[in-house]
# Entry
Amino acid sequence: MNNDFRDESASGKEEISVLIEGDEDYVKYLELQVKRLEEERKRLLRKVEFYRREIEKLISPPLIEAYVEDILPGGKVVVKSSNGPSFIVDVTGDVDVSQLRPGSRVALNQRGSAIVSILPDRVDPLVQLMEVIEKPNVRYSDIGGLDEQIQELREVVELPLKRPELFAELGIEPPKGVLLYGPPGCGKTLLAKAVAAESGATFIALVGSELVQKYIGEGARIVRELFNYARKKAPAIVFIDEIDAIASRRLEIGTSGEREVQRTFMQLLAEIDGFKPLDRVKIIAATNRIDVLDPAILRPGRLDRIIEIPLPDKKGRIEIFKIHLRRVKVKEPIDYDLLAHLTEGFSGAEIKLAVTEAGYYAIRNGRTYIVLEDLLKGIEKVRNKKTLRGLPLETLRSETKLTHV
Ligand code: ATP
# Structure
């Protein structure tokens, strides 16, 4: 019998057991082998499952993307496929009808006869590109030295957003948008956020240069979607920073990149032209390079209010220092006049930086409050950085005589 078994198995198992009879190590070895083979089997099964799923994916027909137009009583839904007519379709058991809204993005089965799942809204890559703040936390009181500009923005942006009926009754058309121009760091973004906050509008920001660099071939579509999104979020302020990246004057359009920028620009103009002055969306554009802007963007009915945001004057600098020192522990007396005097040519952002640097000096000296001397050192540090960035040395020399730190 044993012999028969040996012959049939032909595996030599029996022989091995004869060979290793009484050898404990060898039994252990075999147990390990069994474990290893079991693991191997599991791994191969996973692999088979993976390829089975891949094959399923390859042979299954595609689903159809569609948008819900209406939900009918009785559970049927009117949908419009992305490039076709509208259909009245059913909803499969996996889909919760109560989650469907007009505009929801859904997947239909291959025959287009039923909704098989709800898809996430398509807002990318727009979402990655723009910054949306429902309620910005900047107020007019956070901005120093720009009272006239604030007044103008209140009239041309805030009031029409808050009281459109006033303008409708009077028959006056407020501008659709404004252009803020001036050197960097002087408060253009800050102003746009403050106007949005004070008008109760959503702040939607986009940087022109990023649009041009990151989304080649998609610029025009993104501009269109940006404005659709803003209309949905109205009242809204669309803030386009570095607008010169999209809207600069070109003598000739040669490369495909330039043609693409041109198409994006054309779409921007079409969007601005497409909405009415009293639609509750306003555009605030910003640039440091007004000299290169294409005049088409500044024509009446487009961004026809141009507001300069200059470097702050002495009074402005005092205000900006006070704003940034508001939340800081300070030991009086602080000679604001001297601070303003020493920061001639500084932008608001640089004044803020000087205050931050002063904070570091205080910490380094083991203090939890700032004294005037820290601020003077902070100013000097920022001034040195400015020199490195190319501020004329003569200006610096004549100014540093005043620095008594
Ligand atoms: P850029 O052209 O570089 O975009 P910008 O003009 O939009 O610059 P902001 O981003 O508004 O400048 O300013 C940067 C920071 O500098 C602000 O967050 C704020 O802290 C400070 N700042 C600038 N201007 C002022 C100001 N007038 N009052 C108070 N803070 C200011």
In short: Residues 1-15, 400-405 have pLDDT under 50 and may be disordered. Residues 24-59 form the longest helix (36 residues). The pocket of adenosine-5'-triphosphate is lined by residues 143-146, 184-190, 241, 286, 288, 312, 320, 323, 348-349, 352 (CB under 6 Å). The longest strand covers residues 64-71.
